[in-house]
Write a structure and sequence with these properties.
Layout: E1 10-19, E2 25-34, H1 39-48, H2 52-67, E3 74-79, H3 80-83, H4 86-100, E4 107-112, H5 120-132, E5 136-142, H6 149-155, E6 159-162, H7 164-167, H8 174-190, E7 193-197, H9 202-210, E8 215-217, E9 225-226, E10 235-236, E11 260-262, H10 267-276, E12 282-286, E13 292-297, H11 298-305, H12 310-314, E14 327-330, H13 335-342, E15 354-357, E16 363-367, H14 369-386, H15 396-408, E17 413-420, H16 423-430, H17 432-452, E18 457-462, E19 465-470, H18 472-482, E20 488-489, E21 492-493, E22 496-503, H19 511-526, E23 532-536, E24 542-547, E25 556-557
Parallel strand pairs: 2-3, 3-4, 4-5, 5-6, 6-7, 7-8, 10-14, 11-12, 14-15, 22-23
Antiparallel strand pairs: 1-2, 1-8, 1-9, 12-13, 15-16, 17-19, 17-22, 18-19, 20-21, 23-24, 24-25
Helix pairs in contact: 1-2, 2-4, 13-14, 16-17
Domain GGDEF: 411-545
Protein name: GGDEF domain-containing protein
InterPro entries: Cyclic-di-GMP_PDE-like, EAL_dom, EAL_sf, GGDEF_dom, Nucleotide_cyclase, Rev_trsase/Diguanyl_cyclase
Length: 559
């Protein structure tokens, strides 16, 4: 650790970054811990000695050395000013990687404030050089520092981390929640991963997961641990970024009680469990916080500990010697997501039980894959029966269930009704075959939208009527793709009407409420000439006419 010697009296703590969706351990952040004072004091002293960049670089290289060759990706912190001197930064950093056997792609360089007073050109040139050498980039301190949004937009880092001070406003401050939601939309459109720092409560974690913030770290998940980069983490199924949606039963619907023992349990304790309960297929070993550390398969364990000398060799020794890292999944994942993830497992573990965990990684039970397969198959049969034979879109049941879920999760959403104006006339003048062609074309376009827009769900109610559920930021895309499209039947223009109800948190109690409030908006949309789009909100009789040939109807009222 020759680079650490340049900054004497410094050790490192490591804090994990976890997926808010699955609890999977994604990376470790190395945090410098001076023996006296804080890292800010250390850097302030270096600045006074005009050695800020050199000391900051030594801290980053020391973090790589301290982490060693741990398998997890590593995050190291670098001041924005240091990033403007890439030659000074890269030589020691690359040397540390070579010494520990790591690759630059395993390391994310977190650029930290202050950004003020720096040459933007020098910063971008430095970031480009760092990225050219294979490192990933993150910006830290978003929301409470001097990080301009324009720098995020121009640099397009791999990750942006929300400041812990901002997170303190979650979930009680609606403005903070809205700001995080807006940054989440930025991430969706650009591929930037949003991370939250300083997660302290389960309510915060639940809101972050709902808002689509994929990564979190904080004391609720795991405090920073000094002196080691070794974290034994479950083998989590890979569900990051997969949108929630139709997928058969939820994992929570299939949970069974887990047979658990402390992670220190001896092999003989596990053997007795299996002997006394022939139907038990596995045992989960938990740490002191209730989080799964190891998983023992009945067949593999008994094969290992039985035999002429099995009892003498293994009885008093830790059962964890014969265990595997547990495969875990969040209780709110769908059955299809579970199957997609565990389907990648090969060999002897392919049929193992999967440990179900809550939002902070504590064991709540297990699922047996045979039951998941059966449940998903039954759901698929029901889904196939409900599909409209003309468009192959589902009926209303799927969408109405999703509306009720979003109401329960306190989410804002938009429910819309779409139909063809004068569809009976279309059938009577152009023929039912031409009418069917128009409905099929509408169905294909709506199906394409559901594939592109993660929060959009579509139901074919019947005839020319469709029910569409979207997020607020997706409904404009729906209108552009459907209302603005020049529909034709045998060379004659056809018009469509779209009525949208924006349901803020707490404004509707169920899908029935939404349906009742949407009905008059549907009538209003059909009263507008040409293809139309009108929008309303519960609790007000104001209607915004956003598409249509009647500009006088903007903000009109209806009874």
């Amino acid at each position: 650790m020759n680079h650490v010697a340049a900054v004497p009296g410094v050790s490192y703590a490591f804090q994990p970054l976890l997926s808010t969706r699955t609890g999977r351990l994604l990376a470790l952040e190395a945090l410098a811990r001076p023996d006296t004072g804080t890292v800010h004091d250390l850097l302030a002293d270096a600045a006074r000695r005009r050695q800020l960049v050199e000391v900051d670089t030594a801290l980053a290289a020391g973090a790589v050395h301290a982490a060693g060759n741990a398998e997890l990706p590593l995050h190291v912190n670098v001041l924005a000013r240091t990033a403007t001197h890439p030659d000074t930064l890269l030589d020691p950093l690359l040397a540390a990687l070579r010494a520990t056997g790591r690759e630059p792609a395993d390391v994310t360089v977190e650029i930290t404030p202050p950004f003020g007073g720096l040459s933007r050109e020098a910063l971008f040139d430095g970031l480009k050089t760092v990225r050219h050498h294979g490192f990933r980039l993150a910006f830290d301190g978003a929301g409470d520092g001097d990080l301009p949004l324009s720098i995020i937009a121009d640099a397009l880092p791999d990750m942006v981390k929300l400041d812990a001070y901002l997170l303190a406003g979650v979930p009680g401050n609606p403005a903070v929640v809205a700001l995080i939601e807006a940054l989440g939309h930025l991430g969706t459109r650009t591929g930037i991963r949003l991370a939250a720092v300083g997660v302290e409560t389960e309510d915060q974690l639940a809101v972050l997961s709902r808002l689509g913030v994929p990564v979190a770290q904080g004391n609720l998940i795991a405090p920073a641990r000094t002196g080691t980069a070794t974290f034994t983490a479950p083998e989590i199924t890979r569900l990051d970024g997969m949108p929630a949606g139709p997928g058969g039963p939820l994992v929570a619907d299939l949970v069974q009680p887990a047979v658990t023992l402390p992670e220190s349990a001896a092999s003989d304790e596990v053997r007795r469990v299996f002997a006394q309960a022939p139907d038990v297929t596995g045992v989960v070993l938990l740490d002191s916080t209730g989080r799964p550390r190891w998983s023992l398969s009945r067949n593999r364990f008994l094969l290992a500990v039985t035999g002429p000398y099995g009892h003498a060799l293994h009885a008093s020794r830790p059962a964890a010697r014969h265990a595997d890292p547990p495969r875990t999944i969040r209780a709110d994942a769908s059955g299809l997501q579970l199957l997609a993830a565990v389907g990648e497992t090969e060999g002897a573990r392919a049929g193992d039980d999967v440990v179900v965990v809550d939002a902070v990684g504590r064991c709540v039970g297990i699922v047996r894959l045979a039951e998941v397969i059966r449940g998903v198959a039954e759901a698929k049969v029901e889904q196939a029966v409900a599909l409209n034979p003309l468009t192959r879109l589902p009926g209303t049941a799927e969408v109405t269930r999703e509306i009720d879920r979003r109401v329960e999760r306190s989410e804002t959403f938009v429910v819309s009704w779409l139909d063809v104006d004068g569809f009976t006339d279309v059938n009577e003048t152009a023929g039912f075959a031409a009418g069917d062609d128009l409905i099929r074309a509408l169905g294909r376009r709506l199906a394409d939208l559901t594939a592109r827009l993660p929060a959009t769900r579509v139901a074919h109610v019947g005839g020319d009527d469709f029910l569409v559920l979207t997020d607020v930021d997706e409904v404009g895309v729906l209108a552009a793709e459907v209302v603005d499209h020049p529909w034709q039947v045998d060379g004659t223009a056809a018009c469509v009407s779209l009525a949208s109800l924006v349901c803020a948190v707490g404004s509707v109690a169920s899908h029935r409420d939404a349906s009742r409030l949407l009905a008059p908006l549907t009538r209003r949309a059909k009263a507008v000439d040409g293809s139309s789009w009108v929008m309303g909100r519960p609790g007000t009789d104001r209607v915004d006419v956003l598409r249509g040939a009647d500009p006088q109807s903007l903000a009109s009222r209806y009874s």
